[in-house]
Amino acid sequence: MARLADYFVLVAFGPHPRGSGEGQGQILQRFPEKDWEDNPFPQGIELFCQPSGWQLCPERNPPTFFVAVLTDINSERHYCACLTFWEPVEPTQEELCARDAAERDEEADEGGPGALPPPTPSPPGQLFAPKTLVLVSRLDHVEVFRNSLGLIYTIHVEGLNVGLENVVGNLLTCVIPLAGGSQRTISLGAGDRQVIQTPLADSLPVSRCSVALLFRQLGITNVLSLFCAALTEHKVLFLSRSYQRLSDACRGLLALLFPLRYSFTYVPILPAQLLEVLSTPTPFIIGVNAAFQAEAQELLDVIVADLDGGTVTVPECVHIPPLPEPLQSQTHSILSMVLDPELELADLAFPPPTTSISSLKMQDKELRAVFLRLFAQLLQGYRWCLHMVRIHPEPVIRFHKAAFLGQRGLVEDDFLMKVLEGMAFAGFVSERGVPYRPTDLFDELVAHEVARMRADENHPQRVLRHVKELAEQLYKNENPYPAVAMHKVQRPGEASHLRRAPRPFPRLDEGMVQWIVDQATAKMQGAPPAVKAEKRTTVPSGPPMTAIVERSGGLHGNSARRLEVVRNCISYVFEGKMLEAKKLLPAVLRALKGRAARRCLAQELHLHVQQNRAVLDHQQFDFVVRMMNCCLQDCTSLDEHGIAAALLPLVTAFCRKLSPGVTQFAYSCVQEHVVWSTPQFWEAMFYGDVQTHIRALYLEPAEDRDSFSVCGGSLGRGMGGPGSCSPVALRQVGEAPVQEDERSALDVASEQRRLWPTLSREKQQELVQKEESTVFSQAIHYANRMSYLLLPLDSSKSRLLRERAGLGELESASNSLVTNSMAGSVAESYDTESGFEDAETCDVAGAVVRFINRFVDKVCTESGVTSDHLKGLHVMVPDIVQMHIETLEAVHRESKRLPPIQKPKLLRPRLLPGEECVLDGLRVYLLPDGREEGAGGPGGGPALLPAEGAVFLTTYRVIFTGMPTDPLVGEQVVVRSFPVAALTKEKRVSVQTPVDQLLQDGLQLRSCTFQLLKMAFDEEVGSDSAELFRKQLHKLRYPPDIRGTFALNLGSAHTPGRPPRANKDKGPSFRTLSRNLVKNAKKTIGRQYVTRKKYNPPSWEHRGQPPPEDQEDEISVSEELEPSTLTPSLALKPSDRMTMSSLVERACCRDYQRLGLGTLSSSLSRAKSEPFRISPVNRMYAICRSYPGLLIVPQSVQDNALQRVSRCYRQNRFPVVCWRSGRSKAVLLRSGGLHGKGVVGLFKAQNAPSPGQSQADSSSLEQEKYLQAVVSSMPRYADASGRNTLSGFSSAHMGSHGKWGSVRASGRSGGLSTDVGSRLAGVGPPQANGAPPEPGFLRPQRAALYIIGDKAQLKGVRPDPLQQWELVPIEVFEARQVKASFKKLLKACVPGCPATEPSPASFLRSLEDSEWLIQIHKLLQVSVLVVELLDSGSSVLVSLEDGWDITTQVVSLVQLLSDPFYRTLEGFRLLVEKEWLSFGHRFSHRGAHTLAGQSSGFTPVFLQFLDCVHQIHLQFPMEFEFSPFYLKFLGYHHVSRRFRTFLLDSDYERIELGLLYEEKGDRRAPQACRSVWEYVERLSKRTPVFYNYMYAPEDAEVLRPYSNVSNLKVWDFYTEETLAEGPPYDWELAQGPPEPPEEERPDGGAPQSRRRVVWPCYDSRPRAQPDAISRLLEEMQRLETELGRPPERWKDAWDRVKAAQRLEGRPDGRGTPSSLLVSSVPHHRRSLGVYLQEGPVGSTLSLSLDSDQSSGSTASSSRQAARRSTSTLYSQFQTAESENRSYEGTLYKKGAFMKPWKARWFVLDKTKHQLRYYDHRADTECKGVIDLAEVEAVAPGTPAMGAPKTVDEKAFFDVKTTRRVYNFCAQDVPSAQQWVDQIQSCLSDA
Questions:
Q1: pLDDT digit string (tens) for 909-963?
Q2: Helix, strand, coil percent values for the chain (each to nearest 5)
Q3: 689, 669 in Cβ contact below 8 A?
Q4: Is pLDDT at 1465 greater than 90 in this prediction?
Q5: Contact 636, 828 (CB under 8 A)
Q6: Closest CA to 1741 of 1720, 1770, 1766
Q7: How far is CA 1779 from CA 1811, 1812, 1824, in A?
Q8: DSSP letter, residue 933
Q9: pTM score, two decimals?
Q10: What would you report as the CA-atom Rg of the chain, rounded to the nearest whole angstrom?
Q11: Does residue 943 contact residue 964 with C-beta atoms inside 8 Å?
């Protein structure tokens, strides 16, 4: 029972003490005058009566009523019901303003009537003061308060004849029950009657209509966000003009929070004077009058709900976490069904006539029911996570937050996390966690209705029904009786407040009121207390919890299989099957990402501990520790899945003996995890274990089935019921259900609480003591455990792990509210070292002691350990830590002595003859480089990378050899290598090692042979070793001198040549140059000048740094000397040794003679008929350093004129003929580009003639004459133009404008701007003479000579008016563009790091970005253009850039396309030697061969040419004698520096170094090929690897390939890789070790299968599956070898076969493939290299005819291949029974050594070429096979020991194979003879 009202107070207006305009409230009277003992009078009531301030009013307002809520220091709420009315101000107070009043009087009269109606006009100027009646109560009966205060006011206003003292006295003495659903009628003695109904359950809030009103005012979304804000401890402020609405809204929000209680500041109506409360740091719910909205807007972190406007404003800095899905959306939809039932029907065609809308009160309960259900869903199963820490004297309960979140699957959920950390939830646990107490609606709901709510989820109508049922109960709780009760309370009449009050509110008689109160108190004391016994019960726990959202099964669909793998692996470890375990380990580590697998691991290990298998050997220990670490690394600091909790007992159990007396436990190896330094984890563990032990105290010994082993606490207890939540114990689906009689800790506690009052005092004491000592002993146990996991193994280095910095941080991680709101910032900051002044110097032991002490303090005070015990603990902790440090020192010392883990032994790479190791293997990991195949990739296949091995540096290559780290791949050797010379980029990277995931320094080496070594150095490799490796690599890559390269050091002790010349003035300044030039024009200049030209011949140190572009031209021209001054001896030193004959032997010369371009004879006997001659003018390399010694020039040009012509061209590379068409006799010429601005131009003064003028003119004239001579020497044009025109033509051009060389950009030629294509197609602009454009492509009077030049160079050159030559300006790319493009191409083909989303598109995109194919397209386009021109009879001069890059590419391609000779092996060699080597392509400069070239980088001009050839090869596969492999081979070796062929920049340099002619006389080192051609020749003799079997050329066919980018393919040279042996271009290395011969198994079984897996990017496919022709050739060679004949060369055999085929030309399609290729392919499709796969050519063509079908087959491996082949070769003939029996019968066969003779059934199979044997005739399983391919001879035998006795001697015969001799014995002599004949015939057939 409780008083209805505690105090009645009368508050009136009083003036403000400081005289301000505002007044203040004054308490006139309060009753009773002295405070109640149980309830002191609340202070500050006068502020709350007028929240907006006490002010006088000019008119009489109607009375107002509202209820304010005050909270006292004990968090008790006091309800202050305030009824305010206004009275006229007393005149005494008015005297001061009498004068004003008079004036105001007059104004009022003039201004019209006052605001008051006429009946009782108050005197004008009258002010009214508020007066408030206040009723203070601890009960919340708003209506009763309203009625009671109204009654008092009515009595006063209406002047009823009732004593106010009596009414007030009765009010104060009225006593009503608190709850229980009773009904009480009360009367205050004024003829009134009121009925008070008390709620049924005290714990359920009473909301009346407040919740419904709140939703009406704000709407669903807003209320939901306010609800979440209040739960997650944000500040909420309500605004409204109505006080009653403010208090209703606050009450409604609180009602929604049930069953949680709001425990922060709660002020539904805040007075104006206290507005600064709003800036408090703690959360609150406050209501404020809307007048103060402006103040509210200044607050940055307050959520403002405006009730009048219906808005909720959330500031930017505040994040309100939403409810977890799907609860958020479910709640939203149910709320809309309740609030707006018509929404569901709005779209119906025939809506029901009426819908019943609940009354507001009922709707209010329905809305609350929705939120009650929401809480039941959120907190479902919470009782399973309660830890009973103490039962007596009072229950102490803790909630295992992490386990709850983990089980619900809401670890990531911000909302629930914050709710569980909040104060409201802490109150919920302490209030509702108690196991024995009265229960209410929420307990029922959460225990029994969960399943129903689950089932109803998708049925809105069923959900609504449930909501209505709950609403009924809530309504019943507030209104237990139907409304029969009649209220009878007098009310004042209408507008009574306007009538002049008879008198002010009277002063009441205190004495009388006090007397009434005292009497009632005395009466109460006499009466027996009406105590209604609370019905207490055991709180039901409900079903175990489930996750809020069921996870989709897809993710863990195969989890059973994974658990199986985990279990198997563990059992292998404990059975000592280490190899098996090692195989499974990677799968286990992957599986351990899943929760189920981690749990399974903990359970399995626990079983082994129980079976006393905790002492392990070193390997087992390593495995167990690795698996534990893997489990723990995914544990968060909360350990919500209880994995760390389950492993904690195990890490202190598993151990290994290091030495006698020294044992290392697993905990010393698993310390590196965040979870161990998290105090919340330790607390949860501690409380869980305490609960287990407390439960055991009270269980009967028989019941206590749990064995408390080391681990009993956390794992042994199974599914111990609510409160025993070690998450590991949480039952997996499908485990045995819990036995009914196993009582949970909560059940035990409930029973104990029930018995407690019945126990005797001593018994109670004893139980309390027992519990306390249990907790104490656990605290000691945990102090030990924590020291195990927190003290590092090596405590001498006072290192604390960075994570362990968490230890210092724990002060900040307390659950204080402030940190809670910043929890995000604290949670992740483990690497901050807050808490330690300096983490390095802090002493570990001290930090650990502090950490443990803080833990001990917290848990012991919470669980009521006595202070003496606590002090004892504080003394013990440092000792525990110290002892542990001492034991660890011994362990650390011993563990250092363990032998290190065996690393795989280093595999030595195979080296070439002459190749030497520079740096021995450094252990590295080779990491995946972005090419997916190697790492398993989309094509499947094994993950060969990452691999573990070593990197070797030799004089020739960088080689990695190793094994894949993934043990499932098996013992494959991975090799990746590239020539040192091919290195293009080296950069340091920081990478993770694949095994330990440690960050290590790494190195990424990229090579232009498309290999990439991305390596992480093993930790044993010091940084100095890695640095040494880099330096050595650099030194080998860029030797200071070309003599340092591998090719020149190889095989012979190289005698160094002359010391390099000193070259003082490397780049003389321009001024000195011209000065010297003029000064010495006539003098002979010493030889140093000759050695210094534009392209400085090798001063070796400065190789490859070309002078700046603008200067090089001037130098090259100015330093040339007049021929007259050149004496041969000055030009070239080696000239005395060098004779003309050796020059003639050069490749170019042979080719010129083949083409009929003249002979080298004396000028007298020169045949005048020949238009061209071979000129030896450059034999001393004096005219042009980069040209060959012999050149083809027009017959008519004298040698001395050439000197002058050469000046007009860059690098003095004047036009020379390099090829002549056999059909049209047109010639192809090449030269450098024209000079843009030569020194020559400088001497041309604007007007004044100068000595240089004649020179300039003469050279220009020479140039024109020269071109004219070229034109004239072409047969078609010689007659037409005749000699006579030359002079006229020259004179016409004498002006300064016409000459080629001398005219600079002066006049633009009209014809030049048109585009080449349209020009040649004849659609250009009309000709100068006005003739219309020519019609066709091959127009009749085409120019005799087309000059193809760079657009930029030809700008100012005028065309020749006689149209004898025409300029074709084209745009070409420069070398630097090739370089940039190649870099991007490399990146695209070998990305370096795995792509983020690997897709074919990303490769193609980066390929397109590189623009490589666009450059190929341009080259092919120009080449095809030139081919067309030549074919039509016009000559072409290609004059681009310096004449040694793009010019060379175009000229070579043109010859290749036009002349079939160059498409043979010999011809292609000649082409490369002539155009690339002799004509001075700068291989060393472009390949950056020396230190000097390092800056210029690698520019693959030659590689680009090879790519073009490859594109043509693809389109015309039958036109080339060489295979695509040949191109790749050259592509690899032109950068590898293995051969001398591609070294240096010109013949001149090669001669100077003595490379060019030394090979002729002295072959000092035959084993090491100096020249790549020699090597190719030798290899071709042995194997058809460079030969193209499809070669069937058309005579004199000119090829015209498509050049569009869409027709081009990426060259597989860029993308393919063979990890089994490295690049296949060093043939000696690429031959794998021979396969071991197959022996019969000793038990006579069949030999092992000969199948082998061919992996992409690992095996070389052409070798694993050679094409049929290679295979057949190998077979022939092998058979010949066996027959004892010298094997025929493969080429001869092939030629013979082809010849035979041509003769027979068999039409039946069964000939060898070549006949098919020649005969049945239609002619017009020859140009496409695709038809072979698709053409209808018969099945024999299933050869692998793509890229390099034959590169793998060699003589050396032919044996093996053949052995492999025979069984598979015939497999296509297998019949259904897979048997072909040519002859069969029984033979005795002698077993292997010391084995008896046995009768077997033998089958001779001619088709498969084998002799098979079986146990008996019906036997289907073959027991052995003798391959007839290996049989060498069949001879008569002799009886051996143990032979059958009855048989004739002649019945014995032997079969001799390459491997062994088989002894046979037939039943009689004839059958023996027959067998021998059959076998012989079989052999001869083959």
A1: 888 888 899 988 888 988 888 776 666 555 566 778 888 899 999 999 999 998 8
A2: 45, 15, 45
A3: no
A4: yes
A5: no
A6: 1720
A7: 12, 10, 14
A8: G
A9: 0.55
A10: 53
A11: yes
